[in-house]
Amino acid sequence: MDFSQNLTLPSVTSTPSQWYFLSLVNVRMFGIYYANKEIQYNYVYDELTAGKGTDEVNSMLHHFIKKIVLPNGHRQLTIYADNCGGQNKNNYVLKMLLAVAQMGDLERVELKFFENGHTKNAVDRGFVHVRKKFAKEDVWTTAQLLEVVNSASVSLALVHIPHDNGIMKVFRSVVKEAYKDLKSLQSYQIFTMEESKPGVVSCRATPSDTVVVQDLRRTYDDICTDAAKLHELFQLHLDKLVPPTPNFEKKLQMYRKVRPYVPKEYLNDPIYDAPNDEEEKIAKTAGQERRKAAAKKKKAASDAKRAESMGEPDVEEAQTSEGGLSTSAAEAKGDTQLRKRARKAQ
């Protein structure tokens, strides 16, 4: 499994020169290669639906398990992925798969990561088919893009995720409540989870290494996280993932600078709509917050620099200075007493 490079809308063979410096609409594509049937499932969604973080990866992987793996009667699953920590190799993905095993959906789950520097996997072949076909087509709308992805090869299957969907969920809070983090995760490449060993992850750096076992279950009132607790969390507490805030500047740019080149039959596609008042208000508020944060950061840096340039008196130096003044005062007092004695003697 892996993400492809972003596709962009619109994409035409004769790109107007004015577009080269514009930020167009990004479309994400996440591929999962189903080796048993030699089919690659491409999950496609645009930047207004979701990002490319760990919650998105968990959402699509969980959907694939529920809709493809289990209905086909599989009880064991092996997943290969690259070492991208922000998306694939992290505690959230690991703990979601651990929960799937502990709940009994699968008897055994193996998560294997390629060695650093080896990032090519089966889904990259499917992505090449899509990009080649995409480069030859004039793609103005989301519907056209989906058709290109779906028809790029007979071995590819499309899963479109629209703005309003039931796939993207927030897994972070749920798995965090159920399990502790696995220690030294980045030092291992192979992780095994089994239904017969609830909450336990077996870790290895290489296939021949000694297995390191970690039990990640949290304990509440002396009771470890069990399958019943997990079922409750996954059924009742998986919240919908909030879509990203629309980029007002990009939407305005699409409307003013891209829309004039769009053929009339495609002008009704939402990506060319003008930004509304609510989006403008949100953008202004966000801009104000960014400027305030930047000003605060700049002031803090300026104050620190000024304090450093002025310099604070060294404690030891100050103590030495104070000691010097005290000694001088004592010496002056002693000299005065000696002069008084000398006068009396005369």
TrEMBL record:
Coiled coil: none annotated. Residues 50-200 form the DUF7869 domain. Residues 283-346 are annotated as: Disordered. Residues 283-292, 300-309 have a biased composition (Basic and acidic residues). Pfam families: DUF7869. It comes from the Eukaryota. Residues 320-329 have a biased composition (Polar residues). This is DUF7869 domain-containing protein. It comes from Phytophthora rubi.
